[in-house]
Specification:
Elements lengths: L6 E5 L4 H12 L3 E6 L2 H11 L3 E3 L5 H15 L4 E4 L16 H28 L3 E6 L3 H4 L4 H21 L4 E7 L6 H14 L3 H8 L4 H12 L8 E4 L2
Parallel strand pairs: 1-2, 1-4, 2-3, 4-5, 5-6, 6-7
């Protein structure tokens, strides 16, 4: 299962699952492009794997358009989009205190950001005969989340991916959505820190109880989905 020669864009590739995915796909022969709003961390990751870095705000359409335009100018193609960029806000906030601004901000990045990335990647994929789109949901989409906005947004990403899979199949574009469980990322640890504080619990004990999986484990699944070996896979792929 190699990825030799495939041009793969990882949006949200600066850290966490995105970073692990970029490193594994790069090691398997892909031409990687790292994109993220965090320029410092993104540049560091890109430097480690020898790939270019593009700063992007997925909630801003012009920013996403500029990213795809640069990829088109540089490579003339895009074989795989891996969209892992996302935010979590409002964890454990009571519903009557949950602001509409927080709710909209999370949906703007997680759902609208996914929509914009796909919208502007698809024409480039069609130009070269197809490709693969991998979006990132969460088990929170079906099991619930301590953030009303995050759980809702991930449910939206899953539904969006299902619609895409149906509509884009005729263009030889395969769409999958991966739904990780408890993974050891900065986002997850931030949420666990809030949980520990509100319960007056020891943070390290809370982390231990969460039994977090490693980003590399999810990244290996994504790398497989990006490969031709996963050509018969459709729909949502759940991981630990």
């Amino acid at each position: 299962m190699m990825l030799d020669g495939k041009v793969i864009l990882v949006v949200g590739g600066a850290q966490g699952i995105g970073r692990a995915t970029a490193k594994i796909c790069g090691a398997r022969g892909a031409k990687m492009i790292i994109a993220d709003i965090d320029a410092a961390a993104g540049t560091q990751t890109a430097s480690e794997i020898g790939s270019p870095f593009i700063m992007v705000n997925v909630a801003d359409e012009t920013s996403v358009q500029n990213m795809i335009s640069l990829i088109n100018q540089t490579y003339g193609r895009l074989d795989v989009l891996v969209q892992t960029a996302g935010i979590l806000s409002g964890a454990f906030t009571p519903l009557d205190e949950f602001t509409v601004e927080t709710f909209r901000a999370v949906l703007d990045v997680n759902i609208t950001g996914s929509f914009l990335c796909v919208k502007h990647c698809v024409p480039l994929m069609k130009k070269t005969g197809g490709g693969v789109i991998i979006l990132t949901s969460s088990d929170a989409a079906v099991s619930g989340s301590p953030s009303y906005a995050f759980g809702t947004s991930k449910g939206g990403v899953s539904s969006f991916a299902v619609s895409l899979a149906h509509m884009l199949d005729q263009d030889n574009i395969r769409v999958n959505v991966i739904a990780p469980g408890n993974i050891d990322t900065g986002m997850k640890r931030s949420m666990l820190a809030i949980d520990a504080e509100r319960r007056g619990a020891n943070f390290e004990q809370v982390v231990k109880e969460a039994r977090l999986g490693k980003p590399d484990g999810v990244a290996k699944v994504i790398a497989w989905l990006a490969s031709d070996d996963a050509n018969y896979v459709r729909g949502i792929v759940n991981t630990r």
